[in-house]
UniProtKB/TrEMBL annotation:
GO terms for biological process: iron-sulfur cluster assembly. It comes from Trichuris trichiura (Whipworm). Signal peptide: none annotated. Pfam families: NifU_N. Belongs to the NifU family. This is NifU N domain containing protein. Residues 24-149 form the NIF system FeS cluster assembly NifU N-terminal domain. It comes from the Eukaryota. InterPro entries: ISCU (IPR011339), NIF_FeS_clus_asmbl_NifU_N (IPR002871). GO terms for cellular component: cytoplasm. GO terms for molecular function: iron ion binding; iron-sulfur cluster binding.
Amino acid sequence: MMSSKLFALRFSKVRSASLPSVATYHKNVIDHYDNPRNVGSLDKKDRNVGTGIVGAPACGDVMKLQIKVDENGKIVDAKFKTFGCGSAIASSSLATEWVKGKSLSEAATVKNQQIASELRLPPVKLHCSMLAEDAIQAALKDYQRKQAQA
């Protein structure tokens, strides 16, 4: 397991190398990039935690998004770890904010177009919002699989 200090160091190195020009990013991307929300991990062995890991072979971005669901089916926590560009980090951060407090069915309605619109992603970065949607869907599917096995 990667220590939080090591992750923070690797994360900061990736961040500094991944955001080439602030002028090309909307302030919403910069905000989530400079101040990412919900960075970290949940216990993937917990039956109330769903984990989605997705990647984009074209650019090398890898996104892990996790949700923790309470006994009423509400998402009470969400965490992410993303290795990728500023838009991928911002998309992950926003996605975790949006799914918190939602039911599973509500979280399933979060679409990449909404994430891209909120962050004002340029067309060349739309794959980042698609990864975030895919990560949410994968985390929901993993959680549902665990519940079916219980």
